[in-house]
Design goal:
Blueprint (H helix, E strand, L loop, with lengths): L6 H23 L15 E2 L2 E2 L1
Antiparallel strand pairs: 1-2
Amino acid sequence: MSVPEDALLRRRVLEYFDWGTGVARDVSASQVGKDLGDPGPTPRRGWNGLR
C-alpha cells in the first residue's frame, strides 16, 4: 500500500479514521440493545478540517 505524498491529505484522512474509531468504540462499549438516540447530523469535512 502506498502512502499519499500530500501531508494535508494524509492528516485529513487520519483525522477521519480517528473520528470513526471513536464512534465505533462508543457504540461497542454500549450495552446490547441500548437505544443510542439520535446520532445528529453527519459531520462535514473539508480541506480546512471539520466544518
